[in-house]
Amino acid sequence: MKIHLTAFVLLLLGSYSATAQLKNIELPQLWQEYSFYPKYVPGFNFMKDGKHYSVKEGTEIAQYDLTSGEKTNVIYKSDDIVFSSYTFSKDEKKILLQTEVEQIYRRSSKANFYIWDRKKESLSAVSMAGKQGYATFDKKATMIAFVRDNNIFYKDLAKNKEVQVTTDGKVNSIINGAADWVYEEEFAMSKAFSWSPDGCKIAFLRFDESQVKEFTMTYFYGELYPKYSTFKYPKAGEKNSDVSVHIYDLKTKKTTKVDVGSEKDQYIPRIKWIDENQLCVVRLNRHQNDLTLLIATPKTGATTTLLHEKNEYFIDVNDNLTFLKGNQFIWTSDEDGYNHIYLYNMKGEKVKQLTKGNYDVISYYGLDEHNKKIYFQAAKTSAINRGIYSVSLEGGEPRKLNVLDGVNEAQFSSTFDYYVNSFSQANVPPTFKVYKSKSNELVRTIEDNTDLKTKLKEYNIGKQEFFEMTNSAGVKLHGWMIKPADFDPAKKYPVFMYVYGGPGRQTVMNEWGGQNYMWFQMLAQKGYIVVSVDNRGTDARGQAFRKSTYQNLGKYETMDQIEVARQLAEKPFVDKDRIGIFGWSFGGYLSTLCLAKGNDIFKMAIAVAPVINWKWYDSIYTERFMRTPKENDAGYEENSPINFADQIKGKYLLVHGMTDDNVHFQNATEMANALIQKNIPFEQAFYPNKNHGIYGGYTRAHLYNKMTNFVLDNL
Question: What integer is the mean pLDDT of 175-180?
Answer without folding.
Answer: 98
